[in-house]
Amino acid sequence: MSARSRDLPRRSCLSTPGSNEKFLAKAPTVPADMTFLDLEDAVAPLEKEAARPKVVDAIKNLPWDDRVLCVRVNAWDTEWTYGDVIEVVGNAGERLDEIMLPKVQTAAEIVALDLLLTQIEKKSGLPAGHVGIEAQIETARGLINVDEICAASPRLETIIFGPADFAASIEMPVLTGGVDIPEYPGDHFNYVFSRILMAGRANGLQVIDGPFLKVREMDALRQYSMRARMLGYDGKWALTPDQASVLNEVFSPTQEQFDHAYDLLEAYRKATDEDRKGAVMFGDEMIDEASRKMAIKFVSRGERAGLTRSAD
Ligand code: GLV
Ligand code: MG
Prior knowledge:
Elements: E1 12-17, H1 21-26, E2 34-38, H2 48-61, E3 68-72, H3 81-92, E4 98-101, H4 107-124, E5 132-137, H5 140-144, H6 146-150, E6 156-161, H7 163-169, H8 190-202, E7 206-209, H9 218-231, E8 235-238, H10 241-250, H11 255-274, E9 280-282, E10 285-287, H12 289-304
The structure holds glyoxylic acid (GLV) and magnesium ion (MG).
Glyoxylic acid binds near residues 165 and 177.
């Protein structure tokens, strides 16, 4: 795993086509927590190999801030994966935090990438274990194997749901993946979201939702992404700068939630340390050790988003 990026926030994960110099140049100016330069589905087959040096150049020469920086390579069932990894990781230098592997179906695919990264790190003088892995679950087989996939390598930092490819894989009769389906009364992906979340959390990974393809519909994005947030997801992909701004907000606690959590922790600390009580009243509710665990998440996420306790 990449020691630098593992715990950095990923509320918004900006997808940038690796073949397009204009989009590459703009990417560092978009306020996203994480940016990935894509060699997979946003790049036409005839441009795949030409995109590799463009991506390397962008990583080395553009003014990236401290965001997580990642490259999505092609899946193992193509002819491009090993070439993508060798050329990009072998030349990009230490600023590249991670490789994203799409359409992961088995733990062996993660192990294969881990072994390849280990050799490239040795050969190119990168610190051992420097490059982390983000894995996408976007097929029925990948979902069935998600527990083993999430445990396959210490390099893994996130597990990601890919709704568009997943809808195709399970033959859902839709033409846009990752948006509401009015004909289905409920959340058609609830099982999938929960399944991936359990596997990710059980293995200490961040858990991320994929793209929302109706890129002009900000209210619909806000509503849809709030579901993933409420289940416990850490963030979601952004396809545009406007989507990134919405997601940064959706995946951060509000000031009110932050203050409430902060006060709860203080009341609980006083109860346990000073009054020697394990369960006490806080306003009109009973709090105990489990409440502390919930509150601490709000405070750490809020602090990562730059919040501080409001003055009373
Ligand atoms: C993302 O890669 C998706 O297929 O949704
Ligand atoms: Mg996909």
